[in-house]
């Protein structure tokens, strides 16, 4: 199916039909929709009908699912597990909690722990945000040095939330707490920066929980707020931008929105994109040239 970009081969449709025959005592209906690639739909329909007539499905080539494919399947299973007991993980919606139960989002627990730890170890303080959208979305996720305004060099570090590795029990999919842990490689960066007597603004990007289309815009607004209130309003002469993971794209958004101020103060930009490509800046030719250099 090249138009839908699902990349399912005719043999793939044959195998799915073969698997469906094992359900409902083999009672199966195939419904054809029109309007797609006629060559693809005829070959795929033929593969399905052959299986219905008792022929074995055709051989499949190497199956290497993309990460997007696996994530999509996982989300489907999580949602359907509310209605099918045979599926794990069992999704437990906040609105389904029983009276007297306390449900706390795992990301919220990690955020609270990290904020407390950053203050106790490095005296980093949460940046006060407004009561509006930024405050609701990012409270306690942006921290900075207490003496930031007196630092000539400031690192603006934007990165994904720490990686949580959970060991789950096979029968119930519940977390085995004693064997689960958090991996946060950011502390080495923070320690090195502070040991060299520099200032730091640390932004921990939370997982996408809703409205993923607005995710980049929300992060960009947060970074602009931090830049205007902590960098432009201070005595900082040199700024180093570091983006890791999803932080890369939001930082290039900041560069585009505060172009002249950024070009004046930023002396180095470091991007650690992970599996994603490094986003470019193309608002103006001079800004793009500056960013590339």
UniProtKB/TrEMBL annotation:
InterPro entries: Arb2-like_domain, His_deacetylse_dom, His_deacetylse_dom_sf, Ureohydrolase_dom_sf. Its EC number is 3.5.1.98. It comes from the Eukaryota. One of its GO terms (biological process) is epigenetic regulation of gene expression. It is an enzyme of class 3 (hydrolase). One of its GO terms (cellular component) is histone deacetylase complex. Gene3D superfamilies: Histone deacetylase domain. It is found in: Nucleus. Keywords: Chromatin regulator, Hydrolase, Nucleus, Repressor, Transcription, Transcription regulation. Residues 1-52 form the Histone deacetylase domain. One of its GO terms (molecular function) is histone deacetylase activity, hydrolytic mechanism. Pfam families: Arb2-like, Hist_deacetyl. Residues 106-292 form the Arb2-like domain. Belongs to the histone deacetylase family. HD type 2 subfamily. This is histone deacetylase. It comes from Funneliformis mosseae (Endomycorrhizal fungus). The lineage of its organism: Eukaryota, Fungi, Fungi incertae sedis, Mucoromycota, Glomeromycotina.
């Amino acid at each position: 199916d090249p138009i839908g970009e699902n990349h399912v081969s005719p043999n793939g449709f044959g195998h799915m039909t073969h698997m469906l025959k094992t359900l409902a005592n083999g009672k199966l209906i195939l419904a054809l929709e029109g309007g797609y690639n006629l060559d693809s739909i005829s070959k795929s329909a033929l593969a399905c009908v052959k299986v219905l007539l008792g022929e074995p499905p055709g051989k499949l080539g190497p199956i290497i699912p993309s990460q997007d494919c696996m994530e999509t399947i996982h989300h489907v299973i999580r949602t359907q597990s509310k209605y099918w007991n045979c599926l794990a993980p069992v999704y437990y919606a906040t609105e389904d909690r029983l009276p007297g139960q306390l449900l706390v989002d795992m990301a919220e627990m990690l955020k609270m722990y990290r904020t407390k730890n950053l203050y106790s170890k490095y005296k980093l303080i949460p940046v006060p945000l407004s009561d509006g959208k930024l405050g609701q979305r990012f409270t306690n996720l942006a921290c900075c040095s207490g003496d930031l305004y007196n630092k000539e060099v400031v690192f603006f570090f934007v990165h994904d939330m720490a990686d949580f590795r959970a060991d789950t029990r096979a029968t119930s999919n519940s977390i085995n707490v004693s064997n689960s842990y958090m991996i946060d490689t950011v502390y080495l960066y923070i320690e090195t920066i502070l040991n060299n007597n520099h200032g730091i603004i640390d932004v921990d990007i939370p997982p996408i929980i809703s409205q993923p289309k607005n995710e980049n815009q929300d992060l960009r607004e947060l970074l602009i707020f931090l830049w205007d209130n902590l960098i432009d309003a201070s005595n900082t002469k040199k700024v180093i931008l570091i983006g890791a993971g999803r932080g890369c794209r939001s930082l290039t958004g900041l560069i585009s929105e505060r172009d002249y101020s950024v070009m004046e103060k930023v002396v180095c930009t470091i991007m650690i994109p992970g599996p994603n490509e490094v986003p470019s800046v193309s608002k103006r030719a001079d800004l793009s040239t500056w960013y590339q250099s």
